[in-house]
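Batch manifest line 242
LIGAND: manganese (II) ion
JOB: complex structure
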Amino acid sequence: MNFVKHYEKNTVGRDFAVGDIHGMFRLLQTELENISFDPERDRLFSVGDLVDRGPDSDLVLEWLDKPWFHAVRGNHEDMAIRYPSGNMIASNYAENGGAWNVMNPRELQIQISDAFNCLPIAIEVETDDGIIGIVHADCPCATWQEFVAALEDAKMSNKTRKAIFEAAMWSRERVQIEDQSGIPDVRAVIVGHTPLPRPAALGNVYHIDTGAVFRNGYFTFINLATLETLPPMPKQLEWEAI
Ligand SMILES: [Mn+2]
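JOB STATUS: finished
ARTIFACT:
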């Protein structure tokens, strides 16, 4: 199992990352057309939370098969992985948007769990100006290298591994304390997980979940070559959760 996936530079097209999808695949398709996304050349990286809450969660396996679409594992994928083995209570899962999967036949639940279990915790993308890291919630180590080394360390104790995975998929600490210190050894880190009214950068950590599944929410894309977001980031940070 590779918990880190590495992607070479895209020499033929553009690379984008998009915020939490949460079952809004049809809206995402429309927005990709609006940015003239070219599936022959361009690549789309997802910060995870592909499913739950939105109407199109059942399209997730189809999307994961697309050769230009690459996702890290979010906490909602984590719940879908745990559910078939009895490590996620159905009522709690349904309250968090998982009702569509609770109602799925068991074979499909297992198929979804297996597919999500293949998703990495972190993705690295090479760009002209350095490596960009992608993780659902946060880089829980002082440096990106330390984080990658921890994810790749097969000898790590289960307890330490669990703590790193949990922080990577669930933490909101950087946003909550408005930690501007960033991650020193990568060009940028792209995260989702905490919906914000506008995309925002804390140091070089870019928060791009603008809650497409929520009322008044929308999809934010970030171009990995330029680090420009669509729509653009305001100069002033806006932190009110939506
Ligand atoms: Mn999340």
